[in-house]
């Protein structure tokens, strides 16, 4: 029984350390930032009146991530031969299962992430996998190009171009 309690305490400690290790250096902060100054900034932030569970996740409950609807619809349209497993329009993620394209013999699965409201190639991230592993970069690029072309067609058809 005592060994079981030690194991639980060790596991909880390891989980706490792994979560603490997730907080790396911010992209906005230069590498040569003074540690004492950073600590003081953290202390000042901790003393602020603003405190809620949403502070942990860096957003507000009513704050929505905007996803480009043309890229979203084009991704669903171009990858329609793949069975959709999961979609999250708020974060812009589409996850599909394995499927075979029309006229093809190899099965693929895809993960699409639309990160920005702009109709731009930088807003789109596609990851393709086959049962043998990751797909070549040229195949992934061809799918991204097809999605971008379809998104532009949808935008022109919507007469907002």
From TrEMBL:
Signal peptide: 1-20
Statement: the UniProt record of this protein carries the keyword Signal: yes
Keywords attached to this entry: Signal
Organism superkingdom: Bacteria
Signal in keyword set: yes
InterPro entries per UniProt: DUF3576 (IPR021959)
One Pfam family, short name: DUF3576
The protein's name in its UniProt record: DUF3576 domain-containing protein
Organism: Phaeobacter gallaeciensis
């Amino acid at each position: 029984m005592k060994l079981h309690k030690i194991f639980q305490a060790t596991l909880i400690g390891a989980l706490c350390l792994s979560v603490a290790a997730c907080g790396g250096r911010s992209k906005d902060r230069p590498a040569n930032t003074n540690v004492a100054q950073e600590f003081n900034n953290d202390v000042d932030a901790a003393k602020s009146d603003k405190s809620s569970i949403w502070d942990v996740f860096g957003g507000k409950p009513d704050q929505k991530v905007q996803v480009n609807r043309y890229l979203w619809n084009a991704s669903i349209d171009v990858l329609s031969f793949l069975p959709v497993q999961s979609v999250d329009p708020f974060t812009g993620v589409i996850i599909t299962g394995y499927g075979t394209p029309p006229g093809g013999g190899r099965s693929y699965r895809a993960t699409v992430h639309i990160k920005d409201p702009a109709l731009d190639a930088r807003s789109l991230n596609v990851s393709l996998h086959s049962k043998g592993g990751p797909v070549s970069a040229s195949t992934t690029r061809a799918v991204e190009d097809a999605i971008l072309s379809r998104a532009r067609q949808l935008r022109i058809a919507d007469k907002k171009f």
